[in-house]
Amino acid sequence: MKQRIDLQFFAQEKTEKATPKKRQDTRKKGQVPKSTDVNTALILLAVFLFLFLYGKVLGNHLFSTMEHVYKEYILQDVTEHAIPAMFKELTMESVLVMLPILLIALIVGMGASMLQVGFMFTPEAIKFKLEKINPLKGLKRIFSLRALVEFLKSMLKITLVGLLASSIIWFSLDSLMLLSLKSVQDGFFEVARLTGIIGALTACLLLFLSIPDYIYQKYDHEKQIRMSKQDVKDEQKKMEGDPQIKSKRKQKQMDMAMQRMMQEVPEADVVITNPTHFAIALRYDEENMDAPVITAKGADFIAYRIKTAAKQNEVVLVENKPLARALYYQTDIGDKVPEELFKATAEVLAYVYRLKNKLV
């Protein structure tokens, strides 16, 4: 009894790698190895590189917008028609500034996801499921090993990013102390430059840290989708069909084939026998056939059924052991008689025709 329980336990243990079907099913559910750190790092890097290249253009646009606000709007009367017009104009100016940044983030984010998992459309992943709001499962996720790893990873990132930003500010402290002596525009560009350096280096640091994170996510995903030996067997049964059902289906097909074959026996010209082990039914139409055709064949019990059907339908039975054995092993149902057996078969058919002529 104990040995049986141990065998059942080992059969349920997740020791096998996921099969291609299991991988495909989990992918359809949106369960793929993916690191959000890769997306975050690439988006940050792309955005800050864009700001390095076009930040001056965007800054000038912002300054011209602010200048327009303080020169034009301050002189306008505050009315119910003026306020919507001001709001609309400021909204359009804000869109012109933010839209390129948002587009860069969107494109790079999609590219980073496709780089990790390829193109994937999984509507099943966004379906509402009650188990997703189960508080017990939520607590289990919060206090799981995975949550602990994520917490430690976040603390490591915060610490390293904080050290990096503090170091850059420390080394740039002299230029920051002189900001009060600069114009607003120069001060803005100095702060923007420093922010860009911090952002770009932080993105590079996060990208470096995302490599082990992606490796861990892949390892964890493989661990999550492992299968037990029983799971593999069940999947194979499901794909190939239950052995009992498959056996019954095969038996039914054989029965139907046997029924069709037995229907051909009454149309045969002769049945060549062994006499007990083999029986081969031949039909020959001189006008439409080049050679006699095997319409039925069988051994032992099937041979007995062929001979019984032949007797019931007055089909001639001819005993010829070598020919019966050769036809059984060298041909299939529907085949023509092989050329090397033409002579022996012709002699049998000639005998049958003579016998029929005598009866007539």
Automatic annotation (TrEMBL):
Bilayer-crossing regions: 38-57, 95-122, 143-171, 191-216
Task: Write out the ranges of the annotated region (Disordered).
Answer: 229-250
Q: Where is the composition biased (Basic and acidic residues)?
A: 229-245
The alphabetized list of GO BP terms reads:
bacterial-type flagellum assembly; protein secretion
Known role: Required for formation of the rod structure in the basal body of the flagellar apparatus. Together with FliI and FliH, may constitute the export apparatus of flagellin.
The record's annotation in Pfam families points to: Bac_export_2 (PF01312)
Topology in membrane: Multi-pass membrane protein
Task: Note the InterPro entries from the entry.
Answer: FlhB, T3SS_substrate_exporter, T3SS_substrate_exporter_C
Gene3D superfamilies named in the record: secretion proteins EscU
Q: Which UniProt keywords apply?
A: Bacterial flagellum biogenesis, Bacterial flagellum protein export, Cell membrane, Cell projection, Cilium, Flagellum, Membrane, Protein transport, Transmembrane, Transmembrane helix, Transport
**Family (UniProt):** Belongs to the type III secretion exporter family.
Q: What is its main location?
A: membrane
Recorded GO CC terms: plasma membrane
Keyword Membrane on this protein?
A: yes
The answer to keyword Methyltransferase applying to this record is no
What is this protein called in UniProt?
A: Flagellar biosynthetic protein FlhB
List the NCBIfam families.
Answer: flhB (TIGR00328)
Cellular localisation: Cell membrane
Domain of life of the organism encoding this protein? Bacteria
Q: Which gene encodes it?
A: flhB
Listed PANTHER family = FLAGELLAR BIOSYNTHETIC PROTEIN FLHB
